[in-house]
Amino acid sequence: MKIEIDRKSGFCFGVTNAIEKAEAALSETNQLFCLGDIVHNDAEIGRLKQAGLVTITREQFHTLQNCRVLIRAHGEPPETYEYARKNNISLIDATCPVVLKLQARVRTAFNDLSKGQLVIFGKTGHAETIGINGQIGYKAIIIQGKEDLNKIDFEKPLKLFSQTTMPIDDFRELAGLIRDKSANLEKTGIHDTICRQVANRGPHLEEFSLRFDVIIFVSGRKSSNGAALFKICKEANPCSFFVEGPENLEADWFKGIRSAGICGATSTPRWLMEDTAREIERLLHITA
Predict the structure, then answer these.
(1) Is 98-194 the same fold as 2-9+198-287?
(2) Every domain of the chain and the residues it spans
């Protein structure tokens, strides 16, 4: 049977950068704190935990002094940097460059607004959204979908931005609704700030899924990106299965099939997809 791992699946640049910085720091010391999960994948977190990476909450961070802390790709609000400065915390900043650019654009746009509204299409409570909103003193209006449009006063000027990992089709739908409702269309700014490295994976995975009898999608359950990409795979190929790792595979999935494609989220490590491929081969050998 043919087994193929999607070459475009796995870590995006931001996650790769954060993990490389964590590994470099851990090569110099046996402990490093990380503010939040470095990646939404328990297997990769477990691997780094064995090397000395300690995941902490924002509340725990504000009890620390005289240590090293990694800021993950999602970014952080200004008060995180201020607390670190006052408490001799050395920050290893792995904020994704795409997120840093978005933070700067939001600050500039907010400063240019006069009695207007800055709107962020993002997930309430998501680390990236908190970091973006924190740039402007948490004065943005956060909308997660069209059901939240009632939060906006369409009589006032507004500027719309997006968390970088939100679904691009949902953003475009919201942007269209906002344009239709806005009484100050000439003062309405629609800014598509979705990361294309993430957004472009959807069409690619749709094509990839059609090439195989069965699709094994590897991702952590906490990954919103993983949930969205698996949905695309499942719609393209109904014989698609979501697994967190090789231990979730079932031999019955591979009976009578000729090809299996393995893919994953932007938070899925390559080594985990490779382990999954090896386990499929083992299951096929056992059932042969």
Answers:
(1) yes
(2) 2-9+198-287, 13-96, 98-194
Q: What is the CATH number of domain 98-194?
A: 3.40.1010.20
Phi, psi of 79 (to 5 degrees): -65, -25
CA distance 4 to 70: 34
* Identity of the residue numbered 208: F
DSSP 61-122: HTT--SSEEEE-TT---HHHHHHHHHTTPEEEE---HHHHHHHHHHHHHHHH-SS-EEEEES
Model confidence band, residue 185 (pLDDT cutoffs 50, 70, 90): confident
Q: Of 20, 28, 79, 128, which residue is the catalytic one? A: 128
pLDDT reported for residue 111: 92
**pLDDT above 60 for 7:** yes
Q: What is the pLDDT of residue 47?
A: 96
Fold classification of 13-96 (topology level): Rossmann fold (3.40.50)
The answer to whether 79 is a known catalytic residue is no
pLDDT, tens digit (0-9, with 9 covering 90-100), for 107-135: 999 999 878 899 999 999 999 999 999 99
pLDDT of residue 14: 93
Class assignment of domain 2-9+198-287?
alpha beta
